[in-house]
Design goal:
membrane; transmembrane; transmembrane helix; globular; about 70% helix; 2 strands; about 170 residues
Length: about 170
């Protein structure tokens, strides 16, 4: 519930009745649908559009291999796909959305989704690439990092959009 304060901005009422979504079959379908579509959007961006822009695809499996010392490309791709299909949609629904609901100002789903996507990019480019794998932070902010930024932004917006459409 929102109200208008004296400055004209929308503010969230202090009590939020449902911080977490209910665990129902509809929630599970929303998670799977969001993960499937968002991972598809990511893959189109990473392997279809990015090569046209920077001369090569984004290779998250390569980062996974470097981060965890995995030699199997199949295993690294499986981890990447499972993360996009299952883990990240769970994080959106049970971490990002509840955090947004706790804020005093109501954010529309595109802002929450964009913030989520940017958070995923920071996790990938700083935590995994830099702190874990030892690459320069944000891969030196080059073309690859910029393409990754837009891919994660698209992923976050897609997850948020599907969750909003399904009202989860």
């Amino acid at each position: 519930m929102t109200s208008i304060d004296y400055s004209g901005s929308r503010r969230r009422e202090p009590s939020t009745p449902h911080l977490l979504p209910p665990l129902t079959p509809a929630t599970a379908i929303t998670l799977l649908l969001a993960g499937l579509v968002a991972t598809g959007v990511w893959e189109i961006w990473a392997r279809g559009v990015t090569p046209l822009l920077i001369g090569g695809p984004l290779e998250p499996a390569g980062l996974i291999k470097s981060s965890f010392g995995i030699s199997s490309s199949f295993l690294a791709e499986t981890i990447h796909i499972a993360t996009g299909l299952i883990i990240y949609p769970l994080v959106y629904l049970f971490v990002a959305q509840p955090i947004a609901r706790l804020l005093p100002v109501e954010f529309p789903w595109p802002l929450t989704g964009a913030g989520f996507g940017i958070g995923l990019w920071i996790f990938a480019m700083y935590v995994m690439a830099h702190l874990v794998a030892g690459f320069p932070a944000f891969l030196g902010f080059g073309d690859l990092a910029l393409a990754s930024f837009f891919g994660h932004l698209l992923y976050g917006l897609t997850v948020a959009g599907i969750v909003a459409l399904r009202k989860a």
